[in-house]
């Protein structure tokens, strides 16, 4: 890595948790689309596939703050390892039930277990960076930007890999890769105790949930709407590619969507910004809403890939500033849980988007269903602008400095 990113890896232990964190996060871009590809192949219904994927996302969204609170209280290793074992068992159960032709309701029930035991590893990686940067805001900005770039690399390659595996190897192959990468990546990450943030005793009032902080609530609502864009675009793009006679191209188109975010994330993290976090957040949301407009009017696979790339350009700047705002706003001892609320908001949004995208695709076709993504993007920008006054960060030290 060049420029400001190079200095991050002078931190002892950083390379180890970054690599294992990357492997452990790979499933976040593969789980949903792998489930959609598997269930749609078995049922010939994107509505059913979207509903099961939505169930997984809702279960994850509900459990993420709870696991985050447990991590803040007991430490990462003591929580991650048993959760990962349970998640692996749930994934195996889902595949076995699907292969045996079990009733649909059993897939929904198992989907709840899969989602509830999924790990919000991104928040825990960022918590390590927050601890290791020791209040250096410039280095923390670079670290969060780097992690956003890693996320987008995952979202560039993950959907394409899942689609290729499902269409050329087996409809179950994507979930097998999810199982292996989760088990290996999360376990290796958890065992690296040297960079694990210490468990901090909570001060009076420390039991209050971060979601009750007005600024955190605003950021979470924004990411709820953005998650709806992500969930709907993932599912609708698979159906769009199939309508155009090129289902295998779905992964490449979704990779283009993440590729735009990857490019902007590298650029955004390499800059030292003078404008406030609040201003950066609101401006990025405005660009995001504008960028989604073209996908509603495109009807060709190649042009759609270009449109999705442009739509993705504002994703990383929004996510980077969103995490930074939460890091500044949450009280001491609740950092992991505070960041987990972003994952929760996105998870609920993805669930809404997957469900609505599947229903709208079945009813009106994929091209028309993209209109839902545009509505959600406009809603995200509106909420961010309306609540911007609540996003002023306090002058006192961040949780990383405490």
TrEMBL record:
Domain Major facilitator superfamily (MFS) profile: 215-402
Domain of life per record: Bacteria
Major place of residence: membrane
Transmembrane intervals: 16-40, 46-67, 79-98, 104-125, 146-166, 172-191, 211-230, 250-269, 281-299, 305-326, 338-357, 369-391
GO cellular component, one term: plasma membrane
SUPFAM superfamilies linked: MFS general substrate transporter
Record flagged with keyword Membrane: yes
Keywords assigned by UniProt, alphabetized: Membrane, Transmembrane, Transmembrane helix
GO function terms (MF aspect): transmembrane transporter activity
Membrane topology classification: Multi-pass membrane protein
InterPro entries according to UniProt: MFS, MFS_dom, MFS_trans_sf
Keyword Iron-sulfur: no
Location in the cell: Cell membrane
Pfam family, one: MFS_1
Signal peptide stretch: none
PANTHER family reported for this sequence: MAJOR FACILITATOR SUPERFAMILY (MFS) PROFILE DOMAIN-CONTAINING PROTEIN, PTHR23542
Protein name: MFS transporter
């Amino acid at each position: 890595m060049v420029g400001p990113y190079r200095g991050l890896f002078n931190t002892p232990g950083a390379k180890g948790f970054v690599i294992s964190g990357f492997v452990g996060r790979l499933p976040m871009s593969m789980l949903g689309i792998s489930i959609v590809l598997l269930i749609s192949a078995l049922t010939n219904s994107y509505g059913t596939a979207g509903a099961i994927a939505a169930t997984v996302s809702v279960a994850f969204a509900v459990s993420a703050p709870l696991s985050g609170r447990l991590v803040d209280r007991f430490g990462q290793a003591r929580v991650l390892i048993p959760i990962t074992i349970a998640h692996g068992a749930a994934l195996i159960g889902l595949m076995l039930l699907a292969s045996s032709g079990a009733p649909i309701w059993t897939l929904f029930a198992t989907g709840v277990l899969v989602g509830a035991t999924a790990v919000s590893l991104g928040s825990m990686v960022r918590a390590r960076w927050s601890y290791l940067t020791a209040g250096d805001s410039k280095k923390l900005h670079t670290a969060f930007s780097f992690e956003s770039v890693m996320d987008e690399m995952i979202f560039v390659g993950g959907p394409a890999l899942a689609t290729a595996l499902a269409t050329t190897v087996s409809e179950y192959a994507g979930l097998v890769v999810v199982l292996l990468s989760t088990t290996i990546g999360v376990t290796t990450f958890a065992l690296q105790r040297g960079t694990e943030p210490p468990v901090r005793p909570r001060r009076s009032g420390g039991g209050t949930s971060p979601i009750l902080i007005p600024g955190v609530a605003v950021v979470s609502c924004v990411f709820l709407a953005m998650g709806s864009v992500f969930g709907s675009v993932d599912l609708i793009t698979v159906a769009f590619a199939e309508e155009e006679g090129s289902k295998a191209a779905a992964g490449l188109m979704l990779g283009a969507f993440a590729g735009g975010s990857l490019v902007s994330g590298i650029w955004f993290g390499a800059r030292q910004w003078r404008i406030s976090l609040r201003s950066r957040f609101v401006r990025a949301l405005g660009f995001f809403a504008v960028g989604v407009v073209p996908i509603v009017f495109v009807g060709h696979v190649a042009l759609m890939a270009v449109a999705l790339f442009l739509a993705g350009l504002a994703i990383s700047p929004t996510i980077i500033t969103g995490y930074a705002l939460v890091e500044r706003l949450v009280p001491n001892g609740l950092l992991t849980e505070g960041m987990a609320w972003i994952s929760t908001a996105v998870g609920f949004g993805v669930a809404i988007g997957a469900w609505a995208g599947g229903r709208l695709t079945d009813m009106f076709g994929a091209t028309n269903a993209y209109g839902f993504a545009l509505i959600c993007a406009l809603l995200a920008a509106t909420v961010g602008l309306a609540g911007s006054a609540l996003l002023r960060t306090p002058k006192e030290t961040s949780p990383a400095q405490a």
